[in-house]
Amino acid sequence: MPASAEQLLAPATDFVQSQLKANAMDASHDWDHVLRVRNMAKKLAAEEGLDASTIAVIDLAATLHDVQDYKYSGSATATAISVKAFLTEQEAPDDLIERVLSIISSVGFKDELGRQAGHDLSPEQACVQDADRLDAIGAIGIARCFTFGGHFRRKLYDPQIPPRLNLTKEQYMATKDQATTINHFPEKLLKLKGMMKTASGRRIAEGRHACMEQFLEQFYAEYDCRA
Questions:
Q1: What is the pTM of this model?
Q2: Is the dihedral of CA 177, 183, 189, 192 positive or negative?
Q3: What is the CATH number of the domain that holds 74?
Q4: What is the extent of the structural domain holding 38?
Q5: Residues forming beta bridges with residue 106, ordered by sequence position
Q6: Phi and psi at residue 58, in whole multiples of 5°?
Q7: Mean pLDDT throughout 45-73?
Q8: How far is 58 from 127, CA to CA, in rounded Å?
Q9: Within a 13 Å sphere around the CA of 137, how many CA atoms are in the beta-carbon half?
Q10: What is the tally of structural domains in the chain?
Q11: What region holds the HD/PDEase domain (predicted)?
């Protein structure tokens, strides 16, 4: 009998945990990150007034959103292929598979760079996207940023390398071209507050954005020996 979103959550959890362990991903994209995104997506969905069945789909999609992430797998299609194969094996209904894949395809910053202006998201897409972006900013976002930069052996900062403020999708996906960790703030992280889709996401993003601004002010002051 085809499985529901609620029934799929436990096997999806096991699947994702095994995938992350096998891929030896760094702590910026580990199970704790997935769990935070799951919990935040459900929190946003509840505050946005979505019903229980929609929240169950959001929970499932958030659980699966980072499987075979292109930043580690090197493939922009690996996530969709892997998630579809898993859900098909679990006998998920076709409409549920399409909903989950649609949500996951809308999460990434790179995907929004490649979209036409004015692209609208469904409420379930918006909740998972905002949840993932909220985990990229604030105190946890700062920690994840430097963890990720360390994994890819990036310099902390080089004042001679200016940030690329108008990134294309192709430039963003060229991971090796992202030269310093600090540049990731103006290139992406400081933009996320203005890209939130839900009212609750925008509210939470305000405080997390301010945290990053304070951190950067202190970082530059210390770098220049002004503090």
A1: 0.93
A2: negative
A3: 1.10.3210.50
A4: 5-223
A5: none
A6: -60, -45
A7: 94
A8: 8
A9: 32
A10: 1
A11: 26-146
pLDDT score of 24 more than 70: no
Mind listing the pLDDT tens digit for each residue in 151-182? 989 999 999 999 988 877 777 776 666 689 99
Angle between helices 5-23 and 31-47 (to 10 degrees): 150
Per-residue pLDDT of 98-154, as tens digits, reads 999 999 999 988 767 755 444 689 999 999 999 999 999 999 999 999 999 999 899
Angle between the 52-64 and 5-23 helix axes, to the nearest 10 degrees? 10
Calculate the dihedral angle through the C-alpha atoms of 163, 165, 171, 172, rounding to the nearest 10 degrees.
90
Looking at the chain, list the stretches that DSSP marks H as alpha helix, in order from N- to C-terminal side.
5-23, 31-47, 52-64, 70-73, 78-89, 94-105, 109-113, 123-134, 138-151, 169-173, 184-187, 199-223
* Contacts with 99 (C-beta within 8 Å, 6 or more apart), sequence order: 57, 61, 124
